[in-house]
Each structure stands twice: as structure tokens, then as C-alpha cells.
Design a protein that fits this description.
5 helices, 74% helix, 85 residues, mainly alpha
Length: 85
């Protein structure tokens, strides 16, 4: 793996880690849509579930900015975080 590819992989991890560890709502709101799209591209279902459970309101409101295929992926792969099942 080249250093550029390693750097890009670290950047991807850092975006999601940065969101999950941040307390700055403005930063979370700004980066959650790119993080969701990136996790869908990587098929990182666990990370999507963690984002959804941590920032449910922001996550759900971000869905309208995704494509139909992206929303369908989330509906099919990511389980709701509520305990109603």
C-alpha cells in the first residue's frame, strides 16, 4: 500500500473518529453527511450504526440529503437504535 493510500485511509478513519469524539455540534453537523456517504461507500455498517445511535437526530435529518440508493442501503443494513424490537 502506498503512503498516499495509507494517508487517505487514515483520513477516513479520522473523519468518523473526529465526529464521534467531538462535542462541537457545528462540526458534527458539517461533517456527518460526508461521513455517512463515506461509510456507505466502504460498506461500514458498524460505523453507520454507531453514528446513528450517537447522533440520532442529526443522522435522521441528514438522510434527506442522500441519494435513494444510499437511503435504501441504510434502511436495509442499519438497524434502528431504539429498543422497541
Amino acid at each position: 500500500m502506498t503512503s498516499r493510500a495509507k494517508g487517505a485511509e487514515e483520513d477516513r478513519k479520522l473523519i468518523i473518529e473526529e465526529i464521534l469524539s467531538s462535542k462541537d455540534f457545528a462540526m458534527i453537523h458539517k461533517k456527518i453527511i460526508p461521513a455517512i456517504k463515506e461509510a456507505i461507500r466502504e460498506k461500514a455498517v458498524a460505523q453507520l450504526g454507531l453514528l446513528r445511535s450517537t447522533y440520532l437526530y442529526s443522522f435522521e435529518n441528514s438522510l434527506r440529503f442522500l441519494t435513494k440508493a444510499e437511503r435504501e442501503f441504510i434502511d436495509a443494513q442499519v438497524k434502528p437504535s431504539c429498543g422497541g424490537e
